Structures are given as C-alpha cells and as structure tokens.
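Please annotate the following for my students:
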Amino acid sequence: MYPAYRHSVHRMEHPEEFAHAVSGGSLAADFLAPREAATHVEQFQGDGWALDFHEAGVKARIRCELPKGWGSIGCMRSPAPSFWYGREARRGALVCTPPGEGIDGWITPGFSCLSIALPGEAWDQARELAGGRVAGFAEARIHLPGEAVFRELEHRMVGLRRSLVRAEGDSRGAVHFAQAAAEFACDVLMETCASSPLDWEKRSSPRNRARLARRAEDWMRSHLGEPLPIPELCRTLRVSRRELEYAFRQVHDESPRDFLHALRLNEIRRALVREPREGAVSRIAMAHGITHLGRFSAAYRRFFGENPGDSCRKTPRR
C-alpha cells in the first residue's frame, strides 16, 4: 500500500548538499561565511502538501525554484534573522511565496523555520476566500499575524511533527496525521489571507461572531454524516480559519473541531438509544462521519460514562 507520507532527515555541511533542502524544489546555496554547525532538514511529503523543518548552522544565500504551480510559506521560528525579498523576517513572521515566484533570500546561523508547500489549487481557494481584501497576495510578501496567533500555530506544528514521526509504522494513524498535516498547511495559508485590521474589527463584534457560529453550527448539523474538514467549512462560509476559531471560542468556549465532534457524539447517542439493535454501534457511528472506531469509543466513554454498546441497551424515556 502506498504510504500516507514520506519522511526523511538530512544533515548538510556543504553548499551542494542543500540541493534538495526544500521538498520538490531545486535549491541553490552559497555560503557567505564559514559554517558554525551542520544544517538539518526534516521533511514530510504527502499528497498535495509538504512540511520541511529547517535548522541552519551557516550564513548562506538561498535561491530556490519551486515545483511548477506550487507555492510555499515559511514560518520563522527563531530570533536569528533572515532576509527574504529585501526584508528582514524574525520569529513570528510568515514568508509567503505564491506559485510562480521563487524563494529568494539569505539565512544566518541559528535560523529555524517550518516551510510549508502547497499546490496551486490551495492558493486559488485562499485567494477566493480572501475576497480581494488582501492587496498583493499574488506577490511574495511577509505577513505578521501577531505573537498570540503565531504561538498557537507553532504549538500545533510541534505537536504535528511529533505525531507524524510516531505514526510512521501505523498505517491507520499515518493516514489520520497526513490529513491533519494537510489541514494545518491550509490553515497557515489562510492565515496569510487575514483581513485588514479595520475589516477584522467589524467582523469580530460579538453579534457577528454569534451569527457566524450559528451559521457554522447549522451547516455542521446538516452534514454530520460526511467527512467535514474545517478548512472546507471555512471555504463554504467564506471566512478564515481564524475568524471561525474566534467565533466558536467566544460563543461556545470550544474549537470548531471539538464542537463538531461533540455534535456527532450526541447525535450518535440519540440514534443508539432509538435503535437498540445488535451490531448497530459501528454502522451508526460510521453513518455519522466517524472513521476511527477505537478513538470514537474512548471519546464516547469520556462524554457519557459508558460504552456505546451500553447505550444500545437503554430504553428511551417517554
């Protein structure tokens, strides 16, 4: 069976060894000073996404042609400065290189970043969702999302990296975390499409957030039986992931993903109580969008204090 993603680790000490330091790209590096340490790159490459974790030990000029139709976003993680397209980017910056542009800059020892690569379809969807609010999105640029937002992204990327390494030998887990990686990559891309401060202020009023949360909940309830990635919901509602997250945190004190999961568990319980038949658990769970029955059973026990099969044996109250 074709693996859910490919995982590789590279240690580079000489300029020519940098050629494949960017997934799918052809990178050219020129050292601008003696190297202080080896450079390390860890790569995860899936279907329609790639994540590269870079830790550099040298000052070097970097140029890279990306695969045709693909773009990249660099999440700067260290205080060590780097320069891209003539601008300095330190920790917390998102360096956006859309399809048709090449990566162009230089790095310094101690430089650390996550580089995300996505195909043109993802960029087209992001442009559509941005609705023209972001000037120059078609050009290479540096986006500053703010420390709190970046800390949340970094927390997710660290956990995802750890999970992808652990899941390599587990085919089912690998598929799950490959999907999580693709979703994370799209989330970061959408962050680069964040609306202007004035527009954001209007859209983030308590009333507008409550309306958005209600719209999203209605859509969730009508699609509980379908796989529902949160980025797809954002595209349907034409909002950014950040807008949706803030709306749910404010209105429900839950993330959209956790809220959707809770809706599914509750609806499954109602169905199990209504239809107490042998073998109903798997069928009903899968009919409500559950893909991993083991994790479902554990979550169900945490929510309701009993196994799903126990709910089947209950008599509905009149």
Observations:
- The longest helix spans residues 171-191.
- The longest strand covers residues 5-12.
